[in-house]
Amino acid sequence: MNRIVLENIAKKYVKEWIFRGINYEFKSNQAYVILGSNGSGKSTLLQVISSFLTPTKGIVKYFSNEQEIAIEQMYKNYSIATPYLELPEEFTLMEVISFHRKLKPFYGGLSCEEVVQIMGLTKAKDKILSNFSSGMKQRVKLGLAILSKTNLLLIDEPSSNLDAAAIKWFQNLIHEYRKDRIIVVCSNHIKAEYDFCEHEIVMEDFKEIKEK
Fold first, then answer.
1. How far apart, in whole angstroms, are the C-alpha atoms of residue 207 and residue 27?
2. 212 pLDDT tier (thresholds 50, 70, 90)
3. CA-to-CA distance for 98 and 113, rounded, in angstroms?
4. Which of 97, 107, 162, 179 satisfies CB 3.0 to 4.6 Å to 166 for a cystine?
5. Does pLDDT of 132 surpass 50?
6. Pseudo-torsion of CA 192, 195, 201, 207, nearest 10°?
7. How does residue 158 score in pLDDT terms, banded at 50, 70 and 90?
8. For residues 185 and 167, what is the distance between their CA atoms, to the nearest angstrom?
9. Domain ranges of the chain
10. Once rounded to an integer, what is the mean pLDDT over residues 120-125?
11. What's the rounded Cα separation, in Å, for the pair 188 and 193?
12. Is the pTM of this model over 0.85?
């Protein structure tokens, strides 16, 4: 997949428009940030882009070398890390990585051990995730998403629960694995989360409108 086109996208819950009138095109080898305050609809837009949510109005089209990709095939093409994504906390880290690897291969055929090392969590590889700190869990989410060999990488508020060293780790990992991908990041105007992005979508430009 090398192109995503949003045509007059709008999303409404009950009678409240979260956003509407979004026309945009995402291209491979480019990084985009969706900026907005809490409740502005940026996470909802991210889920629409992923095909997880259907827009109330408009259409999303996905293309690979100008051949349109069916929505039901989209799950194969993207990886995602979000604060609301749940990890199987009864699994050990190695079990989680091994399970994920069966669904989506890692770049360069990385082994489970290599993925653990890249995450910086070697000492915790046999611990169950329920015993992980919030920052460790965020490393797992980001590591799985970024290292997966996918054409579309979606990340919502990547610095959540990360300290300064972990934010630097995230930035370095994105830099290393950004080639040949469309990257979309949601941020509440935290520059460290998106300073690698070339393009901005500001949710306040598509403010909520209530129907009478």
1. 25
2. very low
3. 10
4. 162
5. yes
6. 30
7. very high
8. 14
9. 30-40+71-202
10. 97
11. 9
12. yes
- Which 3-state string (H, E, C) describes the chain? CCEEEEEEEEEEECCEEEEEEEEEEEECCEEEEEECCCCCCHHHHHHHHHCCCCCCEEEEEEEECCEECCHHHHHHCEEEECCCCCCCCCCEHHHHHHHHHHHCCEHHHCCHHHHHHHHCCHHHCCCEHHHCCHHHHHHHHHHHHHHECCCEEEEECCCCCCCHHHHHHHHHHHHHCCCCCEEEEEECCCHHHHCCCCEEEEHHHHCCCECC
pLDDT class for 207, splitting at 50, 70, 90?
confident
